[in-house]
């Protein structure tokens, strides 16, 4: 009895440590970890304090440790409804996106897509100054969902074609391994870059991305983080960028059965790095705007109701 109690505690500790060590994260989590790590480095003091207050204690104050939480729970029965919140299906080969046309799940529930989720969870956090939820929202979940979905919407194939489920049904070879195109963009490009250029060290890759894109904050970053009309979030802009990039880079030369090797890898890697940087910078700007003390955040306008009604009638 005593022995099994000790070993259960030991296992729990090992699991927590595995979860918190970036190098030990299972494949598939690196992108989200990198995005949240980049965002954490750009948070204001006020936003940092609010984020820490909302995180569960086992996260050790690190938002990046829980950035894949939304993926971990999505197949659990209680959370199955969140599945469609990770992506947007757009019409095949249209290469464009419209909220009213595309932001729904497969049973036509409106607003159930990654852009709708970003509007929703940022509005929940903004509506709760002082982090006291007056509306029954779970603000910890809102923070974790917002942080994850800001990452998803920047992955070009999370705003892909409905007919191939964002590349999920396009079977390709990544060098010698059989996989699908969506997985290549979620995981394999990052995995190969880690091995080839960073000695499998994720923190080295994150630092390289920071140096390349974020060292001079006056440069690219300011054009990335400003939404039109001074809004707190602009997921429709990010989604339109993503589907454009999916057409120009992800789908191009990646037909079913294709073998994707060095040429595809090396020409797409800079784009993957840039999307990780943009997602991190935009997540930080959003959290800074929501949590900066003494300044009411700009309104979160979503096109949801009036605009979509007009669209349906027109
Ligand atoms: Zn996701």
Automatic annotation (TrEMBL):
Reactions performed catalytically: Endonucleolytic cleavage to 5'-phosphomononucleotide and 5'-phosphooligonucleotide end-products
Signal peptide: 1-26
UniProt keyword annotations, A-Z: Disulfide bond, Endonuclease, Glycoprotein, Hydrolase, Metal-binding, Nuclease, Signal
SUPFAM superfamilies: Phospholipase C/P1 nuclease (SSF48537)
Gene Ontology molecular function, alphabetical: metal ion binding; nucleic acid binding; RNA endonuclease activity; single-stranded DNA endodeoxyribonuclease activity
Pfam families hit by this protein: S1-P1_nuclease
GO biological process terms held by the UniProt record: DNA catabolic process
Stored InterPro entries: PLipase_C/P1_nuclease_dom_sf, S1/P1nuclease
Any coiled-coil regions, as ranges: none
First-tier enzyme category under EC: hydrolase
Alphabetized CDD domains for the sequence: S1-P1_nuclease
Entry's EC annotation: 3.1.30.1
Family: Belongs to the nuclease type I family.
Name of the featured protein: Aspergillus nuclease S1
UniProt source species: Spirodela intermedia
